[in-house]
Write a structure and sequence with these properties.
It contains eight helices and 18 strands. A six-stranded mixed β-sheet has the order 12-17-15-16-13-14, with helices on one face.
Length: 385
């Protein structure tokens, strides 16, 4: 409180809303995204923010919503605003506060009774003792960290792009094999469906209703038991546990509504139970359960996108599923295709895991570097910038 100048400025008529995001970016809301926010009908207590101000989100600071504003605008009174001064480098303070958020220090100071929020107000953190090196060293620290974190962030972006390209390549290869087979010289015919394209002449196009039985479960998430002995498939990528089973055998499962529609698919063979809004496909006829899984997983999203374009309901109805077309080769051909795509998918997935691990390690190194520098464990000199 002796080094920083907290301000509450009046707003101008043309000021637009500024948001302090959890990744430390403080900018006009329109620069990032407009959805997912509550719009105030009356802007009681709104304050002005200027470029260069340090902004601390009093409720989201524990998740890293602390940073330097790049814009002029206005914000709710739930933001603490610190104006620049000649004696303190606010970028250094922002790094220091974000270290507190990432190490759980802010959360440990929580006085709020609401889950996953803190009440990190100025009168709480302004009385905490902070390390204040000379202003020259503060600026050297922030410049060094700006440089190093930018290098790390760019490397993470490159790895993420590589992951995206590998996923696209994987999907393209699987689509090719599962709709056109392994024989590049096979005689083809039109499937009559744009997103499938041509298929081998001796393959058939059959609707799901003729290939398997379809049903939904009878359980809800409240039936989940962490100590349960059977898998419990819900509308989430994570498989939960339960102490009952309603099916024993080979099945494919997918979410029937919510955010997982067209994205969550499971193949399982054994005893399990499943949610009332999860579809189960079983008792397969003329098609391997594994082949059904791969085709359905790779292509059902096309039908979902088409459906969502006509409907505002984020769910899948039974008629849509029953009439979904699947390309069917012979059982022997299915086995040969499965052997190739599952070996290929496994190899790509292992590479994706390694890349995700690399991102995790880079993020951990980034945080460790910031923590070591702002607390003086690593001393920064001018020639390091």
């Amino acid at each position: 409180k002796y080094k920083l100048n907290k301000v509450t400025r009046p707003t101008d008529k043309d000021d637009e809303v500024i948001t302090c995001f959890r990744d430390g970016v403080v900018t006009l809301r329109k620069n990032r995204r407009e959805d997912g926010f509550t719009v105030s009908l009356k802007e009681h207590g709104y304050q002005q923010i200027c470029p260069g101000d340090l902004v601390v989100h009093e409720m989201d600071g524990f998740e890293g919503a602390i940073g330097i504003s790049d814009s002029k605008g206005k914000s709710t009174p739930v933001y603490t605003v610190i104006e620049p001064n000649q004696n303190t480098d606010l970028r250094y303070i922002a790094y220091l506060l974000r270290v507190m958020s990432k190490t759980g220090k802010i959360e440990s100071l929580a006085r709020s009774i609401r889950e996953r929020t803190t009440d990190f107000r100025w009168n709480m953190w302004s009385v905490i003792n902070f390390p204040f090196p000379p202003i020259k060293e503060q600026k050297e620290i922030s410049k060094y960290l700006d440089k190093k974190t930018n290098e790390i962030d760019l490397l993470i972006v490159k790895i993420k792009r590589k992951i995206e390209l590998l996923q696209e390549q994987k999907n393209a290869i699987i689509h090719q094999y599962i709709t056109k087979g392994l024989d590049k010289d096979a005689e083809m015919k039109s499937s009559g469906i744009e997103w499938i394209g041509d298929i081998p002449k001796n393959w058939n196009l059959i609707k799901v209703r003729y290939l398997c039985d379809i049903s939904t479960g009878s359980k809800d998430t409240q039936d989940n038991d962490e100590e349960g002995i059977y898998p419990f498939f819900v509308r989430s990528p994570k498989i939960q546990r339960i102490n009952s089973f309603s099916f024993d055998g080979e099945a494919v499962l997918t979410s029937g509504d919510g955010a997982g529609v067209g994205k969550i698919f499971h193949y399982f063979n054994g005893k399990f139970d499943y949610h009332q809004r999860v579809y189960k496909f079983s008792n397969f006829k003329n098609i391997s359960g594994r082949f059904f899984y791969w085709f359905f997983k790779e292509h059902f999203s096309y039908e979902i996108l088409r459906w969502n374009a006509k409907s505002t309901v984020d769910s899948v109805r039974l008629p849509l599923i029953q009439n979904f077309p699947i390309v069917i080769p012979s059982i022997d051909t299915q086995k040969n295709i499965l052997e190739v795509i599952e070996k290929y998918a496994s190899r790509i997935d292992q590479l994706l895991v390694r890349l995700e691990k690399k991102i995790q390690l880079l993020r951990e190194y980034r945080q460790s570097l910031i923590s070591s520098v702002v607390t003086g464990k690593i001393r920064i000199t001018e020639n390091m910038i």
